[in-house]
Amino acid sequence: MQFIICDSCQEKDIHCPVCLGQRMALSFANHFFYWQKTMTRPHIYHARVLKLIKKIIDALLFIFVLIVWLSVLFFCYKFIVNGGDVFTFFARKNILMQIFWLTALVALYLAYRIFGAKVSAETVIKLNLDDLKKSVKISQDVWSEKNKLLKKANVSRAFDYESLDLIEHSFLLAEKQGCFLAPAHIFYQLLEKKQTQNYLFRLNLDVSQIRVHLERIFVNLEKGSGVSLSATKLFLQSYLEACLTRREFVALEEILVALNFEEGQVKDLLIDFGIDENKMRQVVAWKRIQQRIAKHWHNLQSRAATKPKHEVNRSYTAAVSPFLDQFSEDLTQLARSGHLEPTVGKEQELVALFNCFNAGKDGVVLVGERGVGKSFVTESLAELMAAEEVPILFQDKRLVRLSVSALIAGADAPGAIEARLLAILKEVRRAGNIILVIDNIEALIGLDTESSASLDLAQVLAEELEKRYFLMIAIADKEKYNAYLKNSLLGQLLAVVNVNEPESDAAIRILETKTPYLEHKYQIFFSYQALDKAVELTTKYVHNQFLPVKAITALEQTASFVLQTKGHNALVTAEDVAAVISKNVKIPLTKVTETESDKLLNLEQEIHFRIIDQVEAVSAVAEALRRARANLVQGKRPIASFLFLGPTGVGKTEVARVLSEIYFGGLEHFIRLDMSEYGGADAVNKLIGFAGAQAGGYLTSQVKDKPFALVLLDEFEKAVTEAHNLFLQVMEDGRLTDANGETVDFTNTIIIATSNAGTDLIQNGLKAGQTIADIKQELVENKLSEYFRLELLNRFDGIIVFKPLSMSEVVAITKLLLDKLNKVLADKGIVLECKEEAIEQIAKAGFDESLGARPLRRVIQDKIENEIAKLILAKKVSRRDKIVLNSLDEIKIEKAK
Predict the structure, then answer these.
(1) Which helix (H) or strand (E) holds 753?
(2) Could you tell me the residue range of the domain that residue 107 belongs to?
(3) Same domain membership, residue 417 and residue 541
(4) Is residue 141 part of a domain?
(5) Which residues form the Clp ATPase C-terminal domain (predicted)?
(6) Which of 116, 142, 164 is the C-terminal boundary of a domain?
(7) Which residues, including other chains, have CB under 8 Å from residue 682's CB and lie 6 or more apart?
(8) Which of the ends of the chain has fewer CB neighbours closer than 10 A, N or C?
(9) Is 686 among the domain residues?
(10) Are residues 687 and 825 in the same domain?
(11) How many domains, in total, are found in the chain?
């Protein structure tokens, strides 16, 4: 694609002798497109006067025809009343009949004038594949050599009546402002159109807000008279959009989409509102899909009214099949009567299916994961067969879906199922025009026959298929196909057509076909962003289902939620979808609220209310969370992973606990693994489960249940190397496969491993005056390799050294723990006052150089909490009393006055 600008007129809207006023052209696929249309106020008003005169003439002609025809009807009625008949009346040769037949011609002419005026003289050029492969580099003197090109077109002749009328109104608006016609004027006029308002409603945009922004843009537009170059480029881009989407004419929708391509203030405005060319194109396609679906249903029902149905037993010419009818449904009949939901997005699978049968295969199996739309393929085929838009091999055929569960149900006698199947196949053979569809084909494997215990029904079906008297389409889940069908005789006879999970755009188109039903059922409306968000979030966070089913499920749940919370006729937004999916997967997916934003920005302060010192650890974790919530984290890894090193009792585990409570919402999102329990040969099985076992491993089960969580690996160095390798995979790929082959997502977890490795080095280094940075470097280079592979260490986002606690820090921790006790007592109406001497005594009693502050909780429990509990139970202290802790051994009670 190449835009060419005339150098002679320097982009000015003048009558240039070189380009003849075209100024700009578009070279695409060996075609030369240009816009050339007289656009002045007098010309527009002159055209409008002519249109008004035309309407007056049309109205007079209509009145003339109406008067004559009413007169004819009156005289015809009198003629019949007097004993005549209609045919004799119209066969008479008199002046009235001559006028009548003349008005019939006038009526035809009037219809041409009215309806023909709304259709342009030319249609959009249809580009074939060969055209798209061609590309010609155009020089700047194209205006003198353009006649040598293969094809050229004045695109203004392909704009429909409504689009040209829009452009004229936009030009008059620009003239009124004293500006050149710009895309902003065209967009402003588009906002007046009902269909544009519908599109913007689907995009959850406020038309009035856009108008305000456009009016601000008008102030800065170039002053002058005529059509700006950017407007001309917009017209060319609109024509190209119609060309690429194979539209017959350039309509308002093409102009709306093209606005997203033209660099400038309008495109910037749309981007500010979160709209790009893909979203605009998709929402236009959505409306056209709905129109096509409505037309499709109407056409199918019309065809159904003109073709025989039950009289020949659900087929046109076939023999009756009463036994088959008991266990099946005729998909072609359902399609003709409009009872199948229209499907889109399965064109690739249908082409593959046709190719298999055209290659001589008698059977095909559709293989895919549950929920990817395997049944949609057969229903799409049924619709094409009903519309007679299939290859010759499929014409005049019935597509009949056999229910395996119905076939098996109630067949208790030996060989009953085999007898049913053979009777069905006998009717299929006699009918001669049935294509058999068998869903869950793998269910036939293992069902014994009466004649031989070693022969199952699948083999019977395979033997019949080898006789080549019918065509069959089987459907199987991928896992069951590989386990049961692939290596069987039947599996070898069937050609495989893989049905894959649809790509994002295809999935959105499928959702667009489902929205009319959901909107009618729940009396709400979906925005395009809701569909887009459903596909995006289910793709990323829902791993136990597949598109499009998981996105459809999410939309239906959201529709129900919106109906309950907002009421009828509400618009379902992306935030609504995110809220519902967030609740299902237990992960915060909605936009960051102002309250949460404040919490994120002040996360270090929040943590330091409960953690003393350890600034490096707190800061690193807080920064990781801010990156994750701002969507700056790579999606294939956990939110963050840290290795905390340091002596016992310095706060490594406590930082993880506090973080889980503050950010993840509580300790229910805290998963702790004591890695000393995973030092044996069965460590991996304990983590991911045993193959075939119903219960999974502890790690995979916990993360599946709580995907948004903090995973603490306590004493990580005590786990075996195989366990370390599992977490190496988690930190690299963000996922882990359990023993049963199910993928577990770790991308919404924070992984913190703690270790006492190198404690002596840390303590000795600090005593020698080394900095934490020097100690960490020595640990990584010399000590940690004794416990961990270098590859594993490199996967951590941060290796953080916790320094031993000083006595002043232990005192501060003591105050935090006593504050917690004070809050508990406050709920009972009791006040706890701790003297400084008592706090220091508790701190000294609860500190140990080898255990850090870990004994501190036990000292407070044994010396303080136990004594207060005795006082309360003895009723020596009651509400409004004050407990004064003078020292570790002296507790005084001040009674309330």
Answers:
(1) strand 749-755
(2) 41-116
(3) no
(4) no
(5) 805-893
(6) 116
(7) none
(8) C
(9) yes
(10) no
(11) 5
Distance of CA 98 to the CA centre of its chain: 66
Q: Kindly state whether residues 343 and 394 are assigned to the same domain.
A: yes
| Dmax (CA) of the chain | 131
Question: Nearest 10 degrees: CA dihedral of 719, 722, 726, 729?
Answer: 130
- Sheet strands (E) in 17-104: 24-28, 31-34
Distance between CA atoms of residues 207 and 192, nearest Å: 9
For residue 298, is pLDDT > 70? no
- pLDDT (0 to 100) of residue 128: 58
Task: For residue 211, give the nearest of 230, 197, 228, 232 by alpha carbon.
Answer: 197
Question: Looking at the domain assignment, is residue 195 inside a domain?
Answer: no
Instruction: Tell me the pairing of strands 328-330 and 398-402.
Output: antiparallel
CA distance 554 to 541: 12
**% of residues, the chain, pLDDT over 70:** 86
Greater confidence (111 vs 897) lies with 111
For 221-271, write each residue's pLDDT tens digit.
Answer: 888 888 888 888 899 898 888 888 888 888 999 999 998 887 788 888 988
Write out pLDDT tens, residues 173-219. Answer: 998 999 989 999 999 999 999 989 988 888 888 899 999 999 899 98
Tell me the pLDDT tens digit for each residue of 579-603: 998 888 777 776 545 555 666 777 7
For the chain, give me the number of helices (H) and strands (E)? Answer: 40, 22
- Give the SS3 label for residue 209: helix
Domain boundary among 801, 817, 841: 801
Distance of CA 383 to the CA centre of its chain: 26
User: H-helix or E-strand containing 492?
Assistant: helix 489-493
Tokens linked to 631: 């969507």
Pairing mode of beta strands 363-368, 471-477: parallel
Residue among 808, 797, 821, 424 at smallest CA distance from 640: 797
CB distance 856 to 865 below 8 Å: no
Residue 676, SS3 per DSSP: helix
Q: Are residues 762 and 641 in the same domain?
A: yes
Give the strand pairing for 525-526 and 571-572: parallel
Model-level pTM?
A: 0.65
Q: Evaluate the omega torsion of the peptide bond into residue 855 and state whether it is cis, within 30 degrees of 0.
A: no
| Type of residue at 467 | K
Q: Are 74 and 100 in contact (CB under 8 A)?
A: no
Among 497, 581, 501, 499, CA closest to 548: 501
**Tokens 């025009």, residue located:** 433
